[in-house]
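Give me C-alpha cells for this 202-residue protein.
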Amino acid sequence: MARKADPERSAARREAITQAAAKLFAERGFENTSAAEIAKAAGLSSGSVFYYFTDKRALFRSVFERDLPMSRELVQRCTAGEDPVASILAMVDELAVEAMDPIAPGILVEVLRQAGKDPDLMRVIAENTAILHEGFATLVERGIRTGAIDPALDPRETAEWIQVVIDGAFLSADPDRDPRPMLRRLITRFLSRPCDPAGKPA
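Here you go.
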C-alpha cells in the first residue's frame, strides 16, 4: 500500500527548498542556479525540487507566493487598528524590515529580469501589490475622515506613493542600515495636514 504524504513534512520541505532557492537566485541569478544546487542547499536529494515544484519557474514564483497570505494578514491586522496613521506606519515597518535581508537587493534584481519572461510571476506580484494598496488606501481614507490625514490627498494615489517609497528602500537596500526611521519620517510628513502661518493645522 502506498504511503500517505505527511502534509506538515511536505510543507516543511517546500519551505526549505523555497528558502534555499531564494538565497541562490539572489546570489547567482535564476539562469545560473540549478535544481541540484538548490536541493543540496536545502539538504535534500537532487530530485526533490521537481517532486514539490513543476519546474524552476514555479519554484521562483513560490518565493513571492509566500508573500500573499502574509500581506493579507498584515492588512487585516492593521486595518483593525484604531489610529489610521499608526496603522499605516506599522504596515510600513513590517514591509520595510525585509529590505534589511541580505538577499533583498539580489532577489529584486532577479525579479526585474524575470518578470517579462513569466506572466504568472507578474500576476503574483500584481496581486500582492493590490492587497497592500487596498490596505493603505483604506487607512488613508479613514485618516482623512477622522482629520488625522491631509484631506487634499487622494487615498488611492497616496497609497501608490507610499508603496513607491517602500520600494525605494529595497532599491537602496543595505543590511547594515535600518530604513524604517527615515520611511516613518517621510510618510508621516507626507500624510500630515498643512499648517497655517501660526503653525496650527490648516
